[in-house]
C-alpha cells in the first residue's frame, strides 16, 4: 500500500537523523509551518496518485499567481520529505515523485534590489540616537561596517530545550545565544569574532561608525562593559528579539522623508 503525504511528514519530523533536525531552531519552526499545511491540505493523498500534473496544480495553488516564494518553499519541503522517504525505504513511489519534483517548472525569485548605503546607515544611527535607541544605532554600525548578519550582532532567543547554555530571560523560559558579547572586545577595542560569516580579530578602532557608537557607550558608562550582551533593548534591559528589533526600525519614529527611506531599507536588510 502506497504511503501518504502525512506518513512522509511524520517520518521526516520524528527521525532525529533527518535534515529537519539539522536546521537552526528558527528555520525549523518556519519550515514546520509549511509541513503542517502540507499535512492538512494533502495529508491523505497517496504517493501513487501524485504525478507531475498534480504537482503543477498544487504549485499554482500555493503561488496564487504571485506568491512565488511561498510556492517554492512548499516545493522545497515536499522535496525534502520525499527524499527522506526514499533514503529510508528505497520506495519506488518516492523515487517517481522526486523525479517529478525535479522537473516541475517553478518561478525564480529576483534578489532584493535595495542595498544599505553609508548614507542610509548614518541616517538610521542618527535617528535611533535621537529617539533613545542607542542599541539600534550600535547594532546598525556593527551590521553595516563589519558586514555582520543581524543574528550575529543581536543574537537570538531560544527555548531552554534548544540551548545548552546562554543568558536566561528574567521574564520567561528562554535563553539568549549567539550575539555579540562585551567579553569579545578587549581593552584595546579588538573584537574576537567567531561567527559563521567571518571570524578572527577585528580592530574596532579602524571602524569609524562602530568607534563613534562605542564612544557614546563610554560617555554613558565611563568605560565599555566587561561582560554580557552588547545590544540591549532599552525597554526591558534584555537582548532584543528579532521581531521587536525589526519593528524598532522606525515603527513610530518622527522622520524626514529621506530618513524614512533609509529606515525602510534598513528594515529589509536587517532581516
Q: Quote the average pLDDT.
A: 86
The rough form would be described as elongated
Helix and strand content put the structural class at mainly alpha
Order of helices and strands: HHHHHHHHEEEEEHEEHH
Write out the strand line-up for the largest beta sheet, numbering strands in chain order. 1-3-2
Largest beta-sheet details: 3 strands, antiparallel
| Strand residue content | 5-15%
Q: Which CATH class of the largest domain is shown?
A: Mainly Alpha
- The helix content is 40-55%
How many whole angstroms does the radius of gyration measure? 23 Å
Q: What is the CA–CA distance across the termini? A: 44 Å
Query: Tally of extended strands?
Result: 7
Please give the CATH architecture of the largest domain.
Orthogonal Bundle
Tell me the count of domains: 2
Compute the number of helices: 11
CATH topology heading of the largest domain: hpI Integrase, Chain A
Spans of at least 5 consecutive residues whose pLDDT stays below 50 are: 252-271
Q: Can you describe what's shown?
A:
This is Tc1-like transposase DDE domain-containing protein. With 271 residues, the chain is mainly alpha-helical. The protein has 2 domains: 99 residues; 153 residues, hpI Integrase, Chain A, CATH 1.10.443. 51% of the residues lie in helices and 9% in strands. It is built from 11 helices and 7 strands. The protein has a 3-stranded antiparallel beta sheet, with no helix packed on it. A two-stranded antiparallel sheet has the order 4-5. β6 and β7 form a beta hairpin. 28% of the residues are buried. The C terminus is likely disordered.
Amino acid at each position: 500500500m502506497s504511503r501518504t503525504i502525512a506518513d512522509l511528514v511524520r517520518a521526516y519530523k520524528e527521525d532525529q537523523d533527518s535534515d529537519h533536525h539539522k536546521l537552526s531552531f528558527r528555520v525549523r519552526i518556519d519550515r514546520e509551518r509549511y509541513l503542517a499545511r502540507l499535512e492538512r491540505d494533502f495529508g491523505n493523498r497517496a504517493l501513487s496518485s501524485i504525478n507531475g500534473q498534480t504537482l503543477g496544480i498544487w504549485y499554482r495553488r500555493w503561488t496564487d499567481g504571485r506568491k512565488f516564494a511561498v510556492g517554492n518553499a512548499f516545493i522545497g519541503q515536499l522535496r525534502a520529505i520525499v527524499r527522506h522517504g526514499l533514503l529510508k525505504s528505497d520506495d519506488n513511489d518516492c523515487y517517481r515523485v522526486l523525479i517529478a519534483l525535479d522537473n516541475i517548472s517553478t518561478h525564480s525569485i529576483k534578489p532584493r534590489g535595495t542595498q544599505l548605503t553609508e548614507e542610509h546607515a548614518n541616517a538610521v544611527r542618527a535617528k535611533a540616537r535621537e529617539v533613545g535607541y542607542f542599541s539600534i544605532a550600535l547594532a546598525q554600525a556593527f551590521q553595516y561596517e563589519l558586514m555582520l548578519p543581524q543574528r550575529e550582532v543581536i543574537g537570538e532567543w531560544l527555548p531552554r530545550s534548544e540551548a545548552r547554555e546562554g543568558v536566561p530571560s528574567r521574564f520567561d523560559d528562554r535563553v539568549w545565544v549567539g550575539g555579540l558579547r562585551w567579553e569579545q572586545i578587549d581593552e584595546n577595542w579588538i573584537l574576537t569574532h567567531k561567527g559563521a560569516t567571518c571570524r578572527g580579530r577585528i580592530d574596532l578602532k579602524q571602524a569609524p561608525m562602530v568607534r563613534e557608537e562605542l564612544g557614546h557607550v563610554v560617555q554613558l558608562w565611563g568605560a565599555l562593559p566587561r561582560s554580557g550582551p552588547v545590544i540591549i533593548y532599552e525597554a526591558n534591559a534584555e537582548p532584543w528579539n528579532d521581531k521587536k528589533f525589526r519593528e524598532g526600525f522606525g515603527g513610530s519614529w518622527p522622520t524626514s522623508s529621506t530618513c524614512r527611506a533609509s529606515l525602510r531599507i534598513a528594515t529589509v536588510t536587517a532581516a
